[in-house]
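Hey L., structure's done. Input below.
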Amino acid sequence: MNKTSVQVYDWPVRFFHWIFAGLFVSAFFIAQTFDDDSIQYPYHMMLGFTLAFVVLLRIVWGLVGSKYARFSSFELKPADLIQYMKDLIKRPGKIFIGHNPASSWAAIVMMICSLGLAVTGYLMIHADKENFEEIHELFANLFLVSAIAHVAGVVYHTIRHKDPIGLSMIHGKKNTEQSVEGIKNNFLIIGLVFVILSGGFGLHLFKNFDTTTQTLNVFGSSHQLGKIEKK
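Output:
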């Protein structure tokens, strides 16, 4: 049977995927490159808050979005995940039009970690840092492991089955032999709104960050993100 190309992922999902990845990589790079008392470190925090905001937008779209954007389409049964991992060495294994069990779990874990990082990061600013630092690092490490496993899975699938599924987050399509109906609306306008809101939120944080006092002043409150160097 010949494979056909089916439109699976809409623009909001695809935009989220790359914004999400870019924000985490940027925040992680700063955290690994600079000390937490450096003048660059507050940008790690602002990127983290923006990451959480983007996840909240994705949660909304996961409830009201197109068929394969909705969380109800995710394959989250533990038994399905175990079977999927067993089938990885087979060719071909079961074909999933939307998120497969591994990518479904990876997406959920990374989104939860993003929110956990933002919450613990906020608490590290306004409460006792020592009490939340280890939890913050735990979320960061779990996120990193999930991301690496996700990328490795995509690469493995591409090589093993000669099916470049990673490109589906660029053009939104997947190849399948099944008779399935893809999405009919890519929701470009909503995708652009998603980008504008994400960029606007991040820009708002950066514009309201005082590099002199290392203070972020937003939404009527002040947050001391960094240490002030005493002369």
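Residues 23-175+191-196 form one domain. The mean pLDDT is 89.

-- N.
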